[in-house]
Design goal:
By secondary structure, the chain is mostly helical. Helix content is 66%, strand content 0%. The chain has a domain at 48-136.
Length: 246
């Protein structure tokens, strides 16, 4: 009986370790656990960068943003429309619009201020309480963390052909990296969206490279991804034209 059970166990292990789809499903399951825990135990993280993105998000959705030479929370002019690129603020506005609850709970705002050791300006608090659900942003960014882990697994597997390297690399770099699920994904920063767009772009470029026939639609799609990436992080400004020079 023990021999039979051992054989069945070994057979299951071989099936899992030799099946990319099964390993991908296992990765998604494994990386979901710390993010579910973080959703219930942690609150969003706000920094001066966060407030500057929130300011631009308000401008883009037509809010009245008065001029202030130095926003005490953003450390930048409150109505400076050229200080940040627009994709992440649009991303924020999309989440705020689709969120079932339109404002951030008062207990969460109090925990953010207590944890960071600063006071949120009353002008910012008005929007955060009434229109901007930061918890929804945290949840969506945890979802992007899971998606990025899956994309990295697929990319590493395609480039190396080694399931162990792809599995381990995806978990160590993003999936089980506490700097991500316990830090970056909590923060109202561009990093989580940037990595997701970058990995999607690299995956699409790989598929383009492997394709026997390249159609204009594929080039424009990859170029659009590059443009979104550049308008999220300006360091990737050349990404939009990359497909046409591939």
């Amino acid at each position: 009986m023990k021999v039979m059970m051992k054989q069945i166990g070994n057979s299951l292990i071989r099936q899992v370790t030799n099946s990319p789809k099964t390993l991908l499903a296992l990765i998604i399951l494994l990386v979901s656990f710390p993010r579910i825990y973080a959703t219930f135990r942690r609150v969003p993280n706000l920094t001066p960068d966060s407030f500057s993105y929130l300011n631009l998000a308000r401008i883009l959705r037509g809010e009245q943003v008065p001029h202030l030479p130095m926003d005490p929370n953003a450390w930048a002019p409150r109505d400076d429309q050229g200080y940040r690129t627009p994709v992440y603020p649009i991303f924020l506005n999309t989440i705020f619009f689709l969120s079932p609850k339109k404002g951030t709970e008062e207990t969460i705002l109090q925990r953010i201020q207590r944890h960071k050791g600063f006071k949120i300006d009353t002008w910012h608090l008005k929007f955060l309480r009434e229109k901007e659900n930061l918890k929804s942003v945290q949840i969506v960014q945890h979802g992007l963390g899971i998606l990025s882990t899956a994309l990295l697994f697929q990319l590493l597997l395609s480039l190396t052909g080694n399931l162990l390297i792809a599995f381990t690399g995806a978990l160590l770099v993003i999936g089980w990296n506490p700097n991500w699920f316990w830090g970056v994904e909590l923060s109202i920063w561009t990093e989580t969206l940037t990595v997701t767009l970058l990995l999607t772009l690299l995956w699409e470029l790989y598929r383009l490279e492997q394709s026997q026939k390249i159609c204009p639609r594929s080039l424009w799609w990859v170029s659009l991804l590059g443009g979104l990436l550049a308008l999220t992080r300006p360091q990737f400004i050349l990404a939009a034209i990359l497909p046409f020079t591939w």
